[in-house]
Amino acid sequence: MELAQVRLLVSDFAACYRFYAEVLGLKPQSGAAEGPYEKFSPVTGSAGIALQDRSMMAGILGELGDAVTGHRSLVVLRVDELDAYCEQIVSRGATLLHGPAPMTDRMRVAHLKDPEGNLVELQEWLLMLG
Known about the structure:
By secondary structure, the protein is α/β, with parallel strands linked by helices. The chain has a single domain, classed as 2,3-Dihydroxybiphenyl 1,2-Dioxygenase, domain 1. It contains 3 helices and 8 strands. It has helices at residues 13-23, 54-58, 82-91; strands at residues 6-10, 27-28, 37-41, 49-53, 74-78, 96-104, 107-113, 119-125. It has a 4-stranded mixed β-sheet with strand order 1-4-3-2. A hairpin with a 5-residue loop joins β7 and β8. It starts with 5 loop residues before the first strand and ends in a 5-residue tail after the last strand. Pfam families: Glyoxalase.
């Protein structure tokens, strides 16, 4: 078994596409900016994040047509230089909710939300720095 991706169900596909591609700087697989599906990958690593239009999945599972309330996901991305990356994404329109700040003696984090309200945690692993 292999984890292929984490998929977020979104209502405003175009806004989320721009966030993951232009603000966070992830690489879209096909360039389907209007959806209904797109996978994004970081420059390194094999993990991916995909977006799928919520209405498409609601056609299969009717319960997904209900209004979304509360936080239902937390996307975690590891970055090498948290402060520099946060400066870059803020200049591209991101709003940080927290950090960059220590979370433990081994990790620094920052938090933000995508246009749908999904939480995104950026991690800098201090042990990897030596």
